[in-house]
Amino acid sequence: MGAVPVYRWRLAPDGLATRRQLRALGLRPGGQDVAAQVERPRRRREPLVAYLYRVEQAKPVRPMTLAKRVALAKANAARRVCPKCRRDAGYVIPPTLGTCTPCAFPEEQRAA
């Protein structure tokens, strides 16, 4: 793979888009290589990088099938079940806690 052109923030030419921009248009990269990248400078840190793809080579987004919809619903439901108390928390359990809030902080729950 050759060198990829780098553009400054908001200075990319027309006809190129990020994955999110393609998705908003109902498109996906469709296996094409990265056409360019955009860098957004930040103070005291390395710049943010976004990869750009050619809009004319993008393909339409694949439609959501019933099987995909069911699998996604199961996966989202599993993220709500606490592994410790096995109850539905009513929200997606944060990966930083790993359990629902009452299981993660039992002393604070009793004090309140």
Summarize this structure as a short list of keywords or feature phrases.
23% strand, single chain, 4-stranded mixed β-sheet, 26% helix, 6 strands, alpha+beta, two-stranded antiparallel ribbon, 112 residues
Strand order, main sheet: write it out: 1-4-5-2
Counted beta strands: 6
Let me know the largest β-sheet: 4 strands, mixed
Helix/strand/pairing class, anyone? alpha+beta
Q: What's the tally of helices? A: 4
Proportion in β-strands: 15-25%
What gross morphology would you assign? flat
Q: SSE order, as H and E? A: EEHEEEEHHH
Low-confidence stretches: none
Chain-averaged pLDDT: 92
> End-to-end span in angstroms?
60 Å
**What percentage of residues falls in helices of 4 or more residues?**
25-40%
What does the radius of gyration come to?
22 Å
Short description:
The strands form two sheets. Strands 1-4-5-2 form a four-stranded mixed β-sheet. The chain is α+β, with helices and mostly antiparallel strands and 112 residues long.
